[in-house]
Design brief:
- The protein has 64 residues and is α+β, with helices and mostly antiparallel strands.
- It has one domain: Macrophage Migration Inhibitory Factor, CATH 3.30.429.
- Helices cover 30% and strands 28% of the residues.
- It contains 1 helix and 4 strands.
- A two-stranded parallel ribbon has the order 1-2. A two-stranded antiparallel sheet has the order 3-4.
- α1 links the parallel β1 and β2.
Length: 64
């Protein structure tokens, strides 16, 4: 049973997460040959101030 953990910046809508979870589940079913009920997806929303790349917080980067 795959558990897919997705970390992303906060601010996505429930509809976006719903659609992404469906797409991840469908891909898992197709590639792994499993039933949809065997796939779990957990979304973890992260504030931009809690994520840094290259030593720079995403909250300090220009938006865009």
């Amino acid at each position: 049973m795959p558990l897919i953990q997705v970390e992303l910046f906060e601010g996505r809508t429930d509809d976006q997460k719903r659609e992404y979870a469906k797409a991840l589940t469908e891909a898992s079913v197709r590639v792994l040959g499993i039933e949809p009920g065997a796939v779990d997806v957990i979304f973890r929303e992260v504030r931009r101030s809690d994520w840094a790349t290259g030593g720079v917080l995403w909250s300090d980067r220009p938006k865009g």
